[in-house]
Amino acid sequence: MADLVDAVEGIVHEPTQVRDDGGVDLTVAEVYEVVSPGRVDFGGGELAPAELAPHDRVWRDEADDYAWWHLDAGTYLVEYNESLSGEAVLQPRAAVVERGGSHPTLRVDELPRVPLTVGGAGLRLKENARVSALQPP
Questions:
Q1: Residue 4, SS3 per DSSP
Q2: Maximum pairwise Cα distance, the chain
Q3: What is the residue extent of each domain of the chain?
Q4: How far apart are CA 11 and CA 54, in angstroms?
Q5: Other Cβ atoms closer than 10 A to 39
Q6: For residue 112, what pLDDT is reported?
Q7: Distance (Å, rounded) from C-alpha 111 to C-alpha 90?
Q8: Dihedrals φ, ψ of 15, to 5°?
């Protein structure tokens, strides 16, 4: 893809999210907890989604415009503000990895909810935080 930014809709703040190397940072819109299991079978006839619930947000200060998710160690599903119409490689940002969070690196042509694994003492994640990056394939 010649220009990845043209394939991304819903960018929150282009000057911050579009990188010099042609990549685009993605921001978190919602964090979900899996509250009951889904099902995956061989043929797909018994495929069923997991039940999800939005994780609670906490206000650090009443004057803040955005709240925070206080994530304990575990696995969550992250939903992005942005959408994609083209091929790209999705990977976690170093800022997340260096603070104990991670998600798989995936080759994508749309943006699914992605499992975010949080280790150790947990992770504080602010609404619209840049958690992932798209790179040209």
A1: helix
A2: 52
A3: 4-135
A4: 22
A5: 9
A6: 96
A7: 9
A8: -60, -30
Residue whose C-alpha is closest to residue 111's, from 132, 135, 133, 82: 82
One pLDDT digit (tens) per residue for the chain, 137 residues: 348 999 999 999 999 999 999 999 999 999 999 999 999 999 999 999 999 999 999 999 888 899 999 999 999 999 999 999 999 999 999 999 999 999 999 999 999 999 999 999 999 999 999 999 999 99
> Is 0.85 surpassed by the pTM of this model?
yes
Question: Residue with structure tokens 């619930």?
Answer: 53
**DSSP annotation string for 20-36:** TTS-EEEEEEEEEEEEE
Q: How far apart are CA 130 and CA 116, in angstroms?
A: 13
Architecture, CATH, for domain 4-135: Distorted Sandwich (2.70)
Structure tokens at 100: 């104990």
Cα distances from 46 to residues 34, 35, 39, 100, 113, in angstroms, run: 19, 19, 7, 35, 21
